[in-house]
Design a protein that fits this description.
The structure is a homodimer. Chain A is of the alpha/beta class. Chain A has ten helices and 13 strands. In chain A, strands 3-2-1-4-8 form a five-stranded mixed β-sheet. In chain A, strands 11-10-9-12-13 form a five-stranded mixed β-sheet, with helices on both faces.
Chain lengths: ~325, ~325
């Protein structure tokens, strides 16, 4: 049997056909063009899956399920996207609408949950039952895997790890609160802090690496400048690691998982990121060395995680 | 069948025999005298249960299980108290040691987990499957019930909701970190903040209610003074409710439970506490009115929650 996984993004709909060994046999994408009526977006999702099946020469009779990872607040139990800011979607019956194109079951979940499930099924946490993934991108998504399954919360809108407080009354968050984890450890936040530091310290190498134009700032520049000895950049990087370490310590104290996974561009830093984080949380987690402290690792599947995870929702 | 529940406290060992309707048929307590060898404490626990059974005229053959709620870091799966600061306990094999006195199974968990389970089985969250309890006492314990069962975390030292950050770098916490939820919403923290405010504002009614001696400060005084219009006390109370609201919003965003329960002396404030908290979290939880926002309620079982919850561990 085969399963289809769809990663619904703001720019592209990515889909793949996944076999029982969690290999993606074929994948492709089409533009989302998110502002269309949702029925059209969903029709394109169905057609993309059917095209991939046809290219593989696989009939729908051996398709065990179709899963979708969607941004926004997803009611997985009801199959409804309650709200997605990117898409102007409200109460979109995604599972039912997509299910009309297939005879197999259709499941949906939040995209970060799918990425976490993908890494547990086939990636950095393979064969591990309890994992937490933080996606460090424009925002911060949280995926919680308990006993090998996605933990959604009792009601929709759980596992929103990025929207827990880190600094009460701090930086404004996209969710309307202040001081959320997302407002400090997203790539957006890192770039904001790097820009501020570069502005404050005109001699900082970060300005040079931006070619004198701070709109060129990205999440790599503060790390590059820091490893090169730049003091202002070092402070940005150290703060970033501290914020992320505090957030991870919180999630360890709550879930005490087998492993913490990170994904996003910042993971290109590899052990330069995960080593200081591991040291930091060893010192900060409740009961310290008396209790289990999980390893902090980078996710390894990249974009495939979302497809494999979505395929495993069913 | 009957079950025994034991609430192991720093001062007293409380135990009760619970029937299948979750009624405590009989209960009693003995002093813990915590600094003794743990074997003696555990022997007293066993003898107390056996005495209660004898008083009821119930044989051990109809005792289905014995459960213990213990302070500290508890490895429920292994039946071991990894660490308890109050008792100077480290790696105490509580379940095995107590089990030697009984032929039925023995289970252990953290005391806050037991209190949460008790409230779900017989108290403020009866017939509710997903609840979070915050015990607001000397410290802050967290009990997480998912699908009617205690959520311990994948490894021991999970569900420590009091040890998640609220104000990065803030007040020192007993766990060694700074700015934890416990350091702002425990009764200890409330009293600390009320003392500081009373000291800063000599005209505050809080000083009068303390009889001019701030060592008399308790968690009720700032509320009493605030309802009486005292400005300094109002600020203490408003800050307290804000801190607690932020913490609750975090736990809603993570677990999205059916209900949030609070216990501890501060719950004597009833709706004066829960109403503003409910309003606060409605505004702060992720996705606001688009997602389910749980009710905030006070626990109702008092000390019985720990006994009933412990009895239900088996």
């Amino acid at each position: 049997m085969y399963r289809a996984g769809i990663d619904l993004g703001g720019t592209n709909i990515k889909a793949g056909i996944v076999d029982e060994n969690q290999r993606i046999l074929i994948e492709d994408s089409v533009p989302t063009r998110a502002k269309r009526p949702y029925q059209e977006v969903i029709k394109d999702m169905a057609e993309l899956v059917k095209k991939l099946l046809a290219q593989l020469g696989i009939g729908e009779d051996v398709l065990a399920g179709v899963g979708v990872g969607s941004p926004g607040t997803v009611d997985a139990a009801k199959g409804v996207v309650l709200y997605s800011n990117n898409f102007d979607w409200e109460n979109v019956p995604l599972a039912a609408e997509l299910g009309a194109y297939f005879s197999c079951p259709v499941g949906i979940s939040n995209d970060a949950n799918c990425a976490a499930l993908g890494e547990v099924k086939a990636g950095a946490a393979k064969k591990i039952a309890n994992a937490i993934l933080l996606t460090l991108g424009t925002g911060v998504g949280g995926g919680v895997i308990i006993d090998g399954k996605v933990f959604e919360g009792a009601h929709a809108g759980g596992a929103e790890l990025g929207h827990t407080s880190l600094i009460f009354g701090g930086e404004a968050c996209t969710c309307g609160r202040k001081g959320c984890v997302e407002a400090y450890v997203s790539a957006t936040a890192l770039i904001r802090d790097a820009k501020r530091a570069a502005e404050k310290h005109p001699a900082s190498k970060m300005n040079e690496l931006c070619g004198g134009d701070l709109t060129n700032m990205n999440g790599k520049i503060p790390f590059d400048a820091a490893w090169d000895g730049d003091t202002a950049a070092k402070e940005v990087v150290e703060n970033y690691i501290t914020y992320l370490g505090e957030a991870i310590a919180n999630f360890v104290n709550i879930f005490r998982p087998d492993v913490i996974l990170l994904s996003g561009g910042v993971c290109n830093q590899g052990e330069k990121l995960t080593k200081p984080l591991s040291l930091y949380i060893k010192d900060k987690c409740f009961a310290k060395e008396r209790a289990f402290v999980p390893e902090v690792k980078c996710a390894i599947l990249g974009n495939s995680a979302g497809i494999i995870g979505a395929a495993n929702l069913i």
